[in-house]
Design a protein that fits this description.
With 286 residues, this protein is of the alpha/beta class. The protein contains ten helices and seven strands. The protein binds NADP nicotinamide-adenine-dinucleotide phosphate.
Length: 286
């Protein structure tokens, strides 16, 4: 089978904005042919513009894929495989965040969170696995989060979905090891993308909450994090570096909030850690 221009091939989910869009351009710049998938190709404008500016527009092809439409995932993947001729990197990036206290969030919202962040990721992974196994090489890169390692109040659905991604990825890595397929987790802290405005701000309104005061505090915190979060460039640089690593680790936490949080969780007894988290939140109330 011919390979697309002899270059390595990357398939990315959720490439219309944020990490997915930036990683598509950065990987194209690093020499990959990129199949940039998104659920609505009409929203490819910013990706196109960024690709033009970087001079890599010919190396990025937009593919339509909603990761929750699991009956179409296999055919989309097969079509990309047939046209591109190989697969070197799958970046499971598509995701969003449902916020709210456990009691407040409707069961359908919990399910909606898992349909994208977990089952969508599993479906896309399963669709690419036979091809990677057949090649006996490739990398599956799952974009998790610090929320996959540490919980935070009022983010239960998101935290649970990312913890599920972490457990799934550990299993997958063990299963793929004999086939030369490398499996990694990227675990960013807070970075400036559209995720902060999309779900976390809108899922549960304070007035509808069983914990209105706490919900309002959390919403204010999320708004502020969204405004002051770090430049996603360091996440994108890590994605490109790890993608090219012949022998990657399992986990890549990124950002000082992520690395310090994980370290504290490893070092401190849980009872002390939960007191620190609660103290931090009540400080922000005042
Ligand atoms: N930003 C952070 O601080 C941060 C930190 C840790 C982890 N992450 C993770 O990074 C990943 C990317 O998020 P981001 O921060 O770049 O946010 P973003 O700018 O909102 O990008 C999310 C992308 O996922 C897509 N998406 C959502 N549901 C989808 C579906 N059903 N099918 C296909 N695509 C779908 C979105 O498409 P639409 O444009 O159609 O909505 C968008 O392209 C997520 O997995 C997120 O959990 C982000």
């Amino acid at each position: 089978m011919e390979t697309k221009n002899g270059r390595p091939v990357a398939f990315i989910t959720g490439a219309s904005s944020g990490f997915g869009m930036l990683a598509s351009v950065a990987l194209a710049k690093a020499g990959y042919e990129v199949a940039a998938s998104m659920r609505d190709p009409a929203s490819q404008g910013r990706l196109r513009e960024a690709a033009m500016q970087a001079g890599v527009q010919d190396r990025i092809e937009v593919v339509r894929l909603d990761v929750t439409e699991t009956d179409t995932v296999e055919s989309v993947v097969k079509d990309v495989w047939q046209r591109f001729g190989r697969i070197d990197l799958l970046v499971n990036n598509a995701g969003f965040a449902v916020g709210g206290f456990v009691e407040d969030v409707a069961l359908e919202e919990w399910r909606r969170q898992f349909e994208t962040n977990f089952f969508g990721l599993v479906a896309v992974t399963k669709a690419w696995m036979p091809y990677m196994r057949q090649q006996r090489k490739g990398m599956i890169m799952n974009i998790s989060s610090i929320s996959g390692r540490i919980a935070f109040p009022a983010m239960g659905p998101y935290v649970a979905s990312k913890h599920a991604v972490e457990g799934f990825t550990e299993t997958l890595r063990l299963e793929m090891l004999p086939y030369g397929v490398r499996v990694v987790l990227i675990e960013p802290g807070s970075y400036k993308t559209e995720i902060w405005g999309k779900g976390l701000q809108s899922t549960v309104h304070a007035e509808a909450s069983a914990y209105p005061e706490s919900m309002e505090t959390i919403r204010r915190m999320v708004r502020r994090i969204g405004e002051t979060a770090a430049d996603p460039k360091e996440v994108i640089d890590t994605i490109v570096r790890v993608a090219q690593s012949p022998s990657p680790k399992l986990r890549y936490p990124i950002g000082k909030g992520a690395t310090s949080g994980i370290l504290l969780k490893q070092l401190l007894p849980w009872k002390l850690l939960e007191r620190i988290i609660h103290k931090n939140i009540s400080k922000k109330k005042g």
